[in-house]
Specification:
This protein is an alpha+beta fold. Helix content is 41%, strand content 25%. It contains 8 helices and 8 strands, in the order ββαααβββαβαββααα. This is Protein N-acetyltransferase, RimJ/RimL family.
């Protein structure tokens, strides 16, 4: 149990809610839930040091609150009230009309599900329509194909590779990939995200509870079906592709 911290600060009171999730100010009450979902593998690709245990998570949250221009949130599932992760608007420069989305991590049980596009929609909507920024930046570790794919599916523009951008846990320098969304692009991306969120939520409503589904299976099923619905509606699988999937399924069962 983490001892109460009398000077634990909440730097904002902004709550964003839609599409089955609530983004609420990151605070001490979220320490235990977030600490339970974090380990070295989940934290790979994050620029902040690994928060070990509840004390480490409390320090991470305090650091987030102390960052200039940072609005950190806990992501809460409105279906069951569970904390499913954390995300933030960071490096906000009102005079330059720019902000970045970062410090994002989710419980493995919800990887590939609607939580990421729903959270990103709320952050992007507040950035462009609330804060009035012109540019929203996003970055991901160049090795993290899951995060890179998730950002690209938002409709963000890949700007380039930031070589040797930060220190890794082992002391080596690692590359990051930079993306951005600009104000004139937001209306189209907003519409695309809304169209994507509807089928994703419909698919999830028909799936087994989170506790009985593996994260990797959830990610594959939801994303492949949602992308097909969004782009084409139900589509036939080519024979060769079907055969490859059957072979992969047989290998997984062995």
């Amino acid at each position: 149990m983490v001892a109460a911290c009398s000077d634990f600060r909440v730097e904002h009171d902004l709550v964003l809610e839609a599409h089955g999730f609530r983004l609420e100010p990151l605070a001490q009450q979220h320490v235990s839930d977030l600490a339970r979902m974090v380990d070295a593998d989940l934290w790979a690709g994050m620029s902040a040091p690994l928060p070990e245990g509840e004390v480490g998570m409390m320090n991470y949250i305090e650091d987030s609150l102390a960052l200039p221009g940072c609005l950190p949130f806990a992501v809460v599932d409105l279906v069951d009230g569970q904390v499913r992760g954390s995300t933030a608007l960071v490096d906000h420069h009102p005079e330059a009309r720019r902000v970045e989305i970062g410090r994002t991590f989710y419980d493995r049980a919800v990887w590939g599900r609607v939580i990421n596009p729903a959270s990103k929609f709320l952050l992007l909507q507040h950035a462009f329509e609330g804060l009035g920024v012109y540019r929203v930046a996003l970055r991901a570790d160049a090795r993290n194909t899951r995060s890179l794919g998730a950002i690209e599916r938002l409709g963000a523009t890949r700007e380039g590779l930031l070589r040797g951008y930060r220190d890794d846990r082992d002391g080596t320098r690692v590359d990051s990939v930079s993306f951005s969304i600009l104000e004139p692009e937001w209306p189209e991306i907003r519409e695309r995200l809304l169209n994507r969120l509807d089928p994703l939520r419909s698919i999830e409503a028909s799936m087994p509870p989170l506790a009985s589904v593996g994260a990797s299976v959830t990610s594959e099923v939801v994303q492949e079906v949602a992308d097909a619905l969004l782009q084409h509606g139900p589509v036939p699988v080519p024979p060769r592709a079907a055969a490859r999937r059957q072979r992969r399924a047989r290998r997984r069962r062995r």
